[in-house]
């Protein structure tokens, strides 16, 4: 019963129903503590205590999950990775990535990746109204192309009632994505974890779930005090 109560708490937390989730966390922890007191098996007691410690951490409004994407793995499109955390209360998104630039690069399609990410946000179920992008300027002649592409994305988003705020930094290094429901996702490679498609008419060119990935790590956090840029 304790495990089921905590499972319900996690579901409520993901949905942004924090007060209800806190009640469930506390009830679940109390039930597990009763089990620990009644258990004589020391190995089981140790496992239960570990779980209680983990759930107490969750009830504090903090959470960490890590996903390892292997080289050439498929099935990790943006929807697969982010949809669970894009609850209906999400209205504001922060994207921090130094390499949202260079459309025509041998191995990357970074501006197109950002566009795909924005398309996912527009489709919902969240009600995103504002996207904040912090990136770095492209170098040399690529800067004009970068600005033109970002302005086109900004204009297109406005047609869907979404404002895109763009800022640039010459010292940015971190890559992270934050939602105003408290979820933060850090991807080692940022949005650029997909491999170049074999051709414009090859499977995986349009559907990112079918596109092979580069090896990378995804860290997912939750805190009720997520910072803003």
TrEMBL record:
<dbReference type="InterPro" id="IPR038113">
    <property type="entry name" value="MITD1_C_sf"/>
</dbReference>
<dbReference type="InterPro" id="IPR007330">
    <property type="entry name" value="MIT_dom"/>
</dbReference>
<dbReference type="Pfam" id="PF04212">
    <property type="entry name" value="MIT"/>
</dbReference>
<feature type="domain" description="MITD1 C-terminal phospholipase D-like">
    <location>
        <begin position="75"/>
        <end position="222"/>
    </location>
</feature>
<dbReference type="InterPro" id="IPR036181">
    <property type="entry name" value="MIT_dom_sf"/>
</dbReference>
<dbReference type="GO" id="GO:0030496">
    <property type="term" value="C:midbody"/>
</dbReference>
<protein>
    <submittedName>
        <fullName>MITD1 protein</fullName>
    </submittedName>
</protein>
<dbReference type="InterPro" id="IPR052817">
    <property type="entry name" value="MIT_domain_contain_protein1"/>
</dbReference>
<feature type="domain" description="MIT">
    <location>
        <begin position="2"/>
        <end position="54"/>
    </location>
</feature>
<dbReference type="Pfam" id="PF16565">
    <property type="entry name" value="MIT_C"/>
</dbReference>
<dbReference type="GO" id="GO:0061952">
    <property type="term" value="P:midbody abscission"/>
</dbReference>
<dbReference type="InterPro" id="IPR032341">
    <property type="entry name" value="MITD1_C"/>
</dbReference>
